[in-house]
Amino acid sequence: MRTFLPPTLVLLLGCTACSVTPVPELSFAMLPHGISAAEFPGANHLLHGFGARSSDAEWRCGDSVLFGLRLRRGETNERWLLHVVVTEPEAKAERVGDEAEGEPLPPVSWPIKVDGTTEYFRSSLCRVAVTVAAADGTVLAETHPLLPRDFLQHGFAPALKQVQRVMRDHPERLGRQEFYANLNSRALAEAVVCAVALVQVVQDDEVLSPILWQVVQRPPLLSVFTNFGVNVVIEPRFHDAARAEVPVGLERRGPVWNVPMRLLVNDSLALTADLLVGSSDAPLATCGGILGVAARHPSDPSIEFSMLLLAAQRGSAAGGP
Questions:
Q1: Residue 290 predicted with pLDDT over 60
Q2: Confidence at residue 239, expressed as pLDDT on a 0 to 100 scale
Q3: What is the structure's pLDDT at 225?
Q4: pLDDT by residue (tens digit) across 63-79?
Q5: For residues 183, 191, 62 and 256, what is the CA-based torsion angle, rounded to 10 degrees?
Q6: Has residue 263 got a pLDDT over 80?
Q7: Phi, psi at residue 28, to the nearest 5°?
Q8: Residue 153, domain extent
Q9: Which of 103, 179, 187, 198 makes a 20 to 30 Å CA pair with 74?
Q10: Mean confidence (pLDDT) of the chain
Q11: Is residue 41 in some structural domain?
Q12: What's the burial of 83, exposed, middle or buried (CB within 10 Å: 0-12/13-18/19+)?
């Protein structure tokens, strides 16, 4: 059984580079080498179209999302499909030793260090079936990981709403370290964990895992020794979030945002990324409301990794797909 239990995350919330210059509205499709649904001819074999979204908080068996993934290295492109389906809205133990077999698994709790202060966060778990396929729909691998249901349910919207409120009501805080001081750190951490959960689905798959190491810059060997290992810091830049267009075919449910993030390993920039995010109404709670990702190698601009939501459907109320 694969459990979502990341190591201690270090979440750096800083605003020393905030700018009062308005950020222009942009669309995910306008990013360089923009990814499109036409690149994945086999998508409909796994999941087709966008079903009606629901504002209720019920998780259902069969809630599902489908992403197209692309790795670009110069003029070379590789593509895959990632299909995630909820199989147990409330994850149950699979074998004796997890708890009593068939009993609901308890919530998980793990530390996240927010600006130097360790805070503990808990979330119930759901179980999903993850299918990785080639762009033509040929199935390559299947796994059944556990994901943090509560964090995915909330998604990015609460974090972005409170950041935008501060920017509107207290513009004088822009550019100051205390910009994030009085914000709800749980909402900010939940948003980041949504992104981490999606990355971990990729990381735990034997087909997709090698992709990450092509996009992430490895730390220098010396820094591994001086830091007694690897220190990973996630730096979300909520204050630099920009409004974006709703992707074609997706029902509008509140604003869509482009949120920049940086990954630092042993104080060195290892990855830059832009996340396209919206509300996490079902069935998009399955992916935390993440609609797309554009990640870049920090020192080699010819290497890019992209994800795009291609389809999302609600499971049946009766509990079956």
A1: yes
A2: 86
A3: 43
A4: 999 999 999 999 999 99
A5: 90
A6: yes
A7: -55, -35
A8: 9-313
A9: 198
A10: 80
A11: yes
A12: buried
How far CA 238 is from CA of 98, 241, 259, 270, 318, in Å, comes to 37, 5, 6, 19, 38
Cα gap 237→11, rounded to integer Å: 11
Judge whether 307 and 68 are in contact, CB under 8 Å.
yes
In a domain, 266, yes or no: yes
Residue with tokens 């009593």: 100
Domain count, the chain: 1
pLDDT, position 132: 94
Tracing tokens 């409330």 back to the chain, one arrives at: 90
How many CA atoms lie less than 13 Å away from 217 in the CB half-sphere? 21
| Spatial separation of the C-alpha atoms in residues 318 and 94, rounded to whole Å | 22
Q: Residue length, the chain?
A: 321
* Per-residue pLDDT at 266 exceeds 90: no
Neighbour-count burial of 140, counting CB atoms closer than 10 A to its CB (0-12 exposed, 13-18 middle, 19+ buried)? middle
CA dist., res. 286 & res. 98, Å (int): 24
The DSSP symbol for 315 reads: P
Pairing of strands 9-11, 108-114: parallel
